[in-house]
Amino acid sequence: MSYLDQISSPTLLIDEKITRANLQRMADKAKRHGKKLVPHWKTAQSREIGRWAQEYGISEVTASSIKLAEYLCGQGWKNIHIAFPFNIREISRLNRLAESQNLSVQIVNTSTAQALANQLAQAVGFFIEIDAGYGRTGVPISDFETIDEILKIAKTSPNLHFKGFYLHPGHTYYGVDKSKIHEESREALHLLKSKYRQSYPELVTRIGDTPGCAVMEEFGDVDELGPGNFVFFDLMQVELGSCAKEDVSVCLAVPVVDISLERKEILVHGGGVHLAKDVLVNDDGSKNFGEVVLLNENGWIIPSHRSFLKSISQEHGVIKASNELLANVKVGDLLGILPVHSCMTADCMGEYLSLDGKIIDHAEGCH
Asked: Per CATH, the architecture of 16-232 is what?
């Protein structure tokens, strides 16, 4: 039976071949530059896709929460890093997980460092997250007083072990000059490594953002690359120049429920609860919540004529359709939507359907 025959409602499809190619490309790039690839698994959130990653020599992974780390435990990862400013209310949960899995956490202030030093019952590593201009979280690059105090506190605990510095230059998603942001991030980590390497000769530095890691070819003495979105890519990454549409490896299959030839619109079952509400803006100022691809037995093809989701509500999606699409679609057909933000779409959907008809796990679908 075709995978298409299994679909009656919005379904997130995954092309294993494209996903594996994305993993292979980034693993090869890291190896070529002598870096360790530690992907951020907030995008895939899947044990099965994790096994694919391990086939390309990826041995460590990053989680966005202790909940995701818990889901990934016992899957053969040498270390799982929780790349979110650690929530000290979860220390008891961290202690339980650390009994059987090597873990590391992210520290951004002395209060968290002190709580961990006081309450950890198991060995746990930590990175100090650095803010070099993004402004969301992290210790400012010039705040050596806080960095020194965190390190001093850690030395009082036999279970809290400094691993290095972590930097997520998320402003590459918004900044015009991505190469300049990447260079500034690289230089910030080099400064920290130079300053603290004598006291901590084993410290490593990690940089994690898909636009920088996918496009740039100069990483200096950064030790580890930690991008996440590259596993699937999406339309936002296409717009940023990180990939081509052909590299996007997930799409939402949506049923057609109504067609308006007069308005040149197609109503589909697929809205905010399936795609999330991330949006791009077209050249004419109209909104784009996802672009239409044509499904077939082998996956999907990108049509030469462009149609896109012009609006979405909770369950509804309205496609602004090309003349070619209108001439070939009927009520009951399935269309594919390339997501604007694949991480959020996958999180909404909670599982994947492969092109050979198999359900692939996602952390949000396994309770």
From this structure: Alpha-Beta Barrel (3.20)
